Amino acid sequence: MTNRGIPSAFLRTTLHNGIGRYVCQLQRLTIKFCKEQKQSRGVRDFIENGLVDFAKNNPSVAVYAQVKRHRSPALVAEYLNGKTHIIPVAEKEAAELLEWLDFLRTRSGEDLIRMRKSQHTFSPSIQGAWTPVTNKQVFPPDFTFPNNELFQAHKFTESATDILQRLARKSTSKTD
Amino acid sequence: MALAKTCCGAIKRFRLELPNFMNPPPITVLQGARTYKQHSYRYNKELYRRRLKVGPIEVTPRSKQLNWNEDVELEAFTHRISEKLSRVGVRQAFTDMSYSRSTAQLVKEVIGDSVQGQELDALDTSAGNEQMAESGDNLARKFIKDFIKVQFPHLPEEGVGSILEFLMSTGKLAHVGKHLGITDLILYDVPLVSLINEEQGEERACAFVRDFIITQLIGEDIDAIFPITSAMTRLVGLLEKKGQGEPISRLLEHCGQATAVSCYFVGIYSDNELIGKAPGETLEIAEEMAAHDALMSLYGIQENRLPFDFNTTYKQYGILNSGTQPTLLSSEQH
Amino acid sequence: MVTPSTHGVADRINEQISQNSHGRLFAVIYIGGHQFKVTTEDLLLIRTNRRFPDVGDRICIEKVLLVGGKDFTMVGRPLLNNVRVEATVVEKTLSHRKIWFYFIRRKGVKKLKLIQDFLTVIRINSIEVSEVEDDVD
Amino acid sequence: MHDRRRVLQWATFARSWWIFDANHQCPFQSANRLCLFLEGKHKPIYHPLSDCGDHVIVINTKHIAMPDRFWRAWRHFHHTQYAGGFQVQRAWQVHREDPTKILKKQIYSTLTGNLLRKGLMARLHLFPEEDVPEGMLRNVSNQIRQVMPVPKTLEDYPIEERESFPRVFEWPEEYVVKDGKEFERQKEYLDEDLSLSKLQ
Asked: Which GO terms describe its molecular function (chain D) (predicted)?
């Protein structure tokens, strides 16, 4: 019940991604950092060593490095669906930064909120939706209800009479 | 204070939708609040009045912000759609005629006489994307038409037309363009088709249309795009044209036929063969819906039809240059 | 015992498959410890780890329990080997923050964890079925 | 919403009408089966919050069957909320006053006790005999199978079969066989007794 109070959404993608060709949803990445302060040290490390490789591996992302003096560093990701995701990366090492970048790259930009269903389909039924006449017994047009001959209870076991009669029939056929 | 904050948020959010100064939105008191705080009402009203006075916030285009490099963005865009396009071409495709004209005008005003008239004319026509838009539109329309004809061979011409119009409508193209990230670059993506055609060939251009425009058909009801009106009359005409027996409707089943909420299941037979069945609240509705169902199966647009084949590529001569019915020539994994 | 209804069913299914007249196919696949009924163009959200194939990769789902068209359904015992389900990894992300809270009253015991799972979204691209062998005696 | 979707929704949640013959059927087992149909549990679309049950017509409720001890042991309690207003009736008494009451009470108690129950009971139509109104019978599109086989009485067998049935021994000619009307006489006697007590 507590899940009701938090925002939720259904599973979706931008522009039916993955049906035609895959489009990387991360459009633009801005790395904001400071040149002086200690908390931007990991980011500065990353910009010196890993940023060019990242940009080369992901040519579909426009990467910017922006100096913000005496501000804590952050990764600002802009997605094709128009949403922005900001990750503060103060005091983070270069290796960890790369993981966060990977996370931003593989995302679609939708909000990280509760998914109501783990599946989305455009064709919920292929053999036809259920109706009361699905798999219903077909009666001839002149059939009238009630008809007790067709709807007698199933006999799953033989009654004592049935057994006796069967035995009797057997014995009479043997004697014949 | 929390109440005041929520109300302020509400006011800001709805501000642009309610331009009338005389009718501020009603400020609701939260349910369960013990008192009605007059000061907060007055405070919010005053805030609202001031907000209106300031006027709408100016929207800064993304390209006017600091972290913006047009070359980088264009390069990223070409990689995003997995095409190898020249930067000059993309820039031209993204330049609207009105923009290029105004630039030319500006050039004329600034440097005036030193530029020759012919050069100015060249600047006028070459920088815009009008021609590209036109040829791209033609190519996309042709390909979409052929694609639909391959996927729905039995659909009548008007149906093909309405699906085409649905896909090539300005709203749909703007939607596609927006989600490919070209909002800050341009407003229309059809010139791109022409550009890809010039630089990469027709097959890639068609693949672009297939992957980004035709995929918009997914999840749409074909019979909502192409509404089938007076189904029974159509069905009679179609069956007569095909040389089949005339449709005969039969009541298959019913639920509570003597009640106000009855449901009838009607089947339509032609030459002793069930060609469509549907439920309905009355016999007339059920018959009409059954005819609709039969028509959908005859047109090949029933719900459980084969899905679109987005992996298929169409060879150039097979689909684009022949006047005959297009055929599926090759299939390869994208 | 041969019941007349099962006789020749495989032939009729094979006929539909060879003529490609079975319409849209659906399948029940087993992935990430869960079973999903899927058809082409579906989206699935599965809990994986970060080592799952990268986004944009095409994957083939091996465990297919059931496949069906408009007129037939084939159930595996337990798996079917004549079906090929292909999918594309569309997104790898984290779930929303789930609260794990442990509290014992009057004892000063209080623990709070915010948990985020690794999630992967895949898109089913195609379901292909090949002809079956008639193993009904 | 397109018309196609609308009629599909209408058909999926359409209520069908069932008929059930309670002749020689145990009311307790019958109630279990009828409740499935009244609550809609026989449908794949069933959900406890959705009111998707069907209509059920029950005929021949007068001819339900219970073991002898049940007719005496099954009790119906009622209290008028006034002092001394408590009364208990045995099954045979209840059944004689209202031949549909035992089945109705049993179904009512078998249904889940929630706010839907009143509506579900309104979709139950009980008839002591086979005289269902014509308009109601027209709605019926299916029948519920009986819960137990109806025993055959001696009269149901043709005379030839009765005559040819193997016998262990023959009655002596001077032996006087009971005519089988003893129960009828007892019943008449009880009826008279009850009517007398009512008059008093």
From this structure: mRNA binding; structural constituent of ribosome
DSSP string computed for D26-87 = -HHHHHHHHHHHHHTTTSTT--TTS----EEEEE-GGG----HHHHHH-EEEEE-SSTT-EE
Q: Nearest CA of chain A to the CA of C42: how many Å?
A: 5
The class of domain A23-111 in CATH terms is alpha beta
* Residue B146 is assigned to a structural domain of this protein: yes
Q: A157 at the D interface (CB within 8 A)?
A: no
Residues of C in contact with B310 (CB under 8 A): 125
Q: Would you say residue C136 lies in a domain?
A: no
Domain chopping of chain D, boundaries: 15-148, 159-199
Partnered with residue C87 across adjacent β-strands are C59, C124
All residues of chain A having their beta carbon less than 8 Å from the beta carbon of residue C124 are: none
User: In a mutagenesis test of the A interface, which of B72, B80, B84, B222 is the best target, namely the one with the most A β-carbons within 10 Å?
Assistant: B80
Q: In terms of CATH, what superfamily is D15-148?
A: Ribosomal protein L13 (3.90.1180.10)
Task: Give the count of domains, chain C.
Answer: 1
Edge-to-edge strands of the sheet including B273-280?
A: B248-255, B263-270, B273-280
- What confidence category does residue A161 fall into, taking pLDDT thresholds of 50, 70 and 90? confident
Q: In a 10 Å sphere around its CB, with 0-12 CB exposed, 13-18 middle and 19+ buried, how is residue B74 labelled?
A: buried
Q: How far apart are CA B175 and CA B184, in angstroms?
A: 13
Q: How far apart are CA A75 and CA A73, in angstroms?
A: 7
* Structure confidence at residue B93 (pLDDT): 85
Among the partner residues A19, A30, A128, nearest to B218 by beta-carbon distance: A19
Chains in touch with D (3+ beta-carbon pairs under 8 Å) read A, B
Nearest CA in chain C to B217: C41
Q: Are B221 and B159 in contact (CB under 8 A)?
A: no
Residue pLDDT, tens place only, C46-86: 999 888 899 999 999 999 999 999 999 999 888 999 999 99
**The predicted structure's pLDDT at residue C127:** 95
Closest CA to C10 of C70, C72, C61: C72
